[in-house]
Design goal:
The chain has helices at residues 2-16, 21-27, 77-80, 85-89, 94-103, 144-159, 165-183, and strands spanning 32-33, 38-39, 114-118, 133-137. The chain is mainly α and 184 residues long.
Length: 184
């Protein structure tokens, strides 16, 4: 009980210092649940969809009930940091892309308006599973072009040893926009 209280005090002090809640929880070893805005009771739940239709992206983020993110659990830093890794594992058929658009209620689109994007990018071990895919808009900004900057940032951070692979995966799945705003 005392240890739990001390953790709460430490988290409150970090918040007062201006750290974001999600980054704070990851730094303390507590996982962030983007659906509730707080700590989850266990490990981050990659690949667990609780909804497969009527999905709604809001504010540049996917509907986490539909797109919680997913990873190749066997991907390692040594694998992902090899040139060509992403292209060697990329495998999203057009039929799956159409399922993603349908789940989010997108029935028509203009070229360049959306891209079916990996929430956890392939270059940091994200998977091709539909639970990791969402129709990301190009605009308003930040859109899919700006998310590409976050993806490059995380791959560079992981491959240089500045951040571990699992932390990068959780951070991009939790809220890539928060990371974008921090690196800009």
């Amino acid at each position: 009980m005392l240890a739990r209280w001390r953790r709460g005090v430490a988290l409150a002090r970090m918040l007062a210092a201006g750290m974001s809640l999600a980054a704070m929880m990851v730094a303390c070893g507590t996982e962030f649940n983007p659906d509730t805005g707080g700590a989850s009771t266990g490990a981050y739940q990659f690949g667990v969809q609780t909804k497969t239709s009527h999905c709604v992206a809001k504010g540049g983020l996917p509907d986490h009930a539909c797109t919680p993110g997913d990873i190749f659990t066997n991907a390692t830093k040594d694998q992902i940091c090899v040139s060509g890794y992403s292209s060697s594992v990329r495998d999203v058929p057009q039929s799956v892309k159409e399922q993603v658009y349908a789940a989010y209620g997108i029935t028509s689109r203009q070229p360049g308006q959306y891209e079916v994007d990996h929430l956890v990018n392939l270059s940091i071990g994200g998977s091709n599973d539909i639970s990791n895919l969402w129709p990301e808009a190009a605009s308003p900004k930040p859109g899919f072009h700006e998310k590409d900057e976050v993806e490059v940032y995380f791959q560079n951070q992981v491959c240089s040893g500045k951040i571990d692979l699992r932390t990068a995966q959780i951070q991009i799945a939790s809220n890539w926009l928060e990371v974008y705003n921090q690196i800009k």
